[in-house]
Give the backbone structure.
Amino acid sequence: MSSLRGRLIISMLAIIFLIVAGSNFVIQDIQTGIIEGEFRNVGFLLANNLASEISNNFLINDFVEVSKTVNNAKNSYPEIEYIFVADSQGIVLVHTFESGFPKALLDYAKPENTSKEDIIETEKGIIHEFDAPLFKNIGYVHIGLSENRVRAQILDASRKIMFLAICAVLLGGIFVYFIGKRLTEPIIRLNEGAKRINNGILDQKIEVGSNDEMGELARTFNDMSSTLDQKIKELITSKEKTENAERYLETLFHSIEDGIIVMNINHEIIKMNSSFLKMTGMSEKEVLGKTCHELIFETLPSQKEECPVNKLLQTGQPIRFMQEGKFNSGTKILDINSSLFIDKKENPNIIMVIRDVTQHKILENEILLRNRELTVLNEISKNISEAFDIDKIVSKSLENILKLTNMEYGEAYLVDDKTGKFTLINHQGEKGNDPFEPGKVNEVLIVEGRKNTLPAKDVYYSYAVIPLKSKDKVFGIIRITSEKSHIFSGREKELFSAIGNQIGVAIENISFYDNIKYLKEFNDEILNNINLALHVVDRDMRILAVNDELIKIGRIKREEVINKNLYDIFSFLKKRHVDQEYDHVIKTGEIFQSEEKIQYYDEIIYTSTSKIPVKDKNGSVEKIITVIKDVSEKKKLEEELKDSYEELKLTYSKLQELYKIKDNFLSSISHELRTPLTSVMGYTELMLEENLTQKQRHKIEIIFRNSKRLYRLIRSLLDTQIIDSSDLQLTRENIVINELITSVVEDMKNIAVSKNIPITIDIPDSLIVEGDNERLIEVFSNIVENAIKFTIAGEIIIKGETDNEKVHIVISDTGIGIPEDKMEKIFDRFYQVDSSDKRKFGGTGLGLWISKKIIDAHNGRIWAESKNRGSTFHILLPKRVK
């Protein structure tokens, strides 16, 4: 659709829109006027009339008539939503609500003594409540009118008005469309034809449909297009030839790799090729109109005779020169050829062909720099190979580095192996005032353009710190400094690192050599001062080294035996077949030890000899170290010990017989004591059940307690004999650990209570093991009794848990503890931690030994722990005894 037609339609639609909008505003005003005017007047009128009608009946309390009047009023006016009548106290007496008076209206039951209107929003819509007082304000009438019916009537009227407005819009739109189409179609065809001509399609004809002004305009347009078509075809043919020639030259101009610019006599660039733009990193817009001095020759005068462009304009002769140019893409070195040419208008122009030779120059400089670096490295390498002195190597290397970098000052530090501090060993050049504290660096440290912090100096300086290291060990540093701003290249950093590593390796090698030299002297000192004779031979039995002890024993001189054959010096060795021992060491690579009796210079010597192979990297024996120890004194002692051994053997036999007699005696006396002791314990227990005085009970309890103690002692002695005879038999039954330990604790309750020591048992009922009930009671009795005995104050805790297929019981006390050096002995027979005559606690030392044997018989384990205070005993029992 054309813009003309569009404007017509938009104008018509705007008028229609204004009509519709105005109708809508009128409807809203009518609605507001009805509700706020007529609706309100009706409400107050109904309220006042109803108040007048019911006042008399209300005065005589005839509420039946009041109710009838109220209901008639509600039924007469559909707009009435509800009516209720309240007395002067606000108590509702009559209402029209079928489901009871709503609580939401209680606040409206007693209004002020004036007629008023309240607007209430409810689920059924907006309610206007009108209030009117009865005669002398004895009560109040409340009428609620709903807007719904009034709004419905207004809405119906609004819809009819809107329908008429929409019909008017549709009819107006149709009318505007046809009128606009008739007016705009000829203009649209002319516009489209003009566009096609503008796009080069000249043969255009517009259909003439009328004889009016629009038809005349169409015929004139058709004649004009025919004339233009003929003229332009002639121009196109000529233009194509010219364009082909220009295209060829332009292609050639832009395809040349060298940059080309064309300038006028004012040195302004009027044309350039793509290579020049690529070379400078600039756009055509940035270049055109700029002078060559702005872009290329910033360092050259623009109008003086020295300017190459001026020289070219003066002489007319081509010139060639080198120039450095700064562009967006960076600084470049340019090889420039310039020529003069005259254009069609006889104006002189300058053509410059510019070649970027930056990389070529960089390569030349790189080669020169590499030669310089190689020269320095060769000098450093030569210095390292010729000098075997660390100070000389470092000093000469510092001199070469300063020569390479043209830095002004250098200093070298080495690390003191003992203190780890850096010591200055050399400095060259005039030292600046920059503060520097040497420290370890693992990589080359570069600092460029740092401001001097000293008040007297306001300059910037640069420096590099080169670590002298081999692998990861730093032996020192070299620092080179310049008070001029110096930029270090990445190549220089790599070179510094290589030089530092080379010097570091040299320092390490020299240190290694010095260490080897020291170790050799140290080893010679050790070998010559030990009481062992020693010599070293090679595979051919050629003596390589001997120590002073061998020279002393062998009564030989060192210079007489070195590099001589072993058997030539000690001829008796072959007679004793010692050569076979050396052959064995060479073949097997194993140490061969022997003891020999030698008669040497009329003296009998006993020796213990070790022949130790020294292998090369392939595992072959290349040397043998022979260590000879004089054991003559040892042999004499062995003879004496042999005689003593026979005496000890006889004594041991007699002790065995005495030990057997002792065991028989203990067994007999234990059995003899056990029977009367059982009777004593039985009668004592019966006496405790009788009525005794407190004093009598106390004495009998002492008798009973000590009798039990004696009974356990006798049983321990009997158990000792059973265990010694390996005749310990176990019965097997399922034992609930909690019940067993509870019974043990109950037996010892009186002792624990007397010492005010609580015993806590934390063992699940599910812990069951297979074992001998009596023997396990004996074990836990021994441990719990010891815990009570050795605990002065505190508590005893017994815990149990499952540990895989085993039961783990832990008994902890807060007693005196067990010394660490005696921990391993507490399970030994008859062992007591305090075995002195003045020991504080009694006992035989058998309880823990017997307990361990019983636990071992159950395939279990028992051990103890103690730290400073208190002891903890651990017992591990399998759930099933195998």
Q: What stands out?
A: The two ends are 107 Å apart (CA to CA). The chain has a mean pLDDT of 78. The first helix runs from residue 3 to 59. The first strand starts at residue 80 and ends at 87.
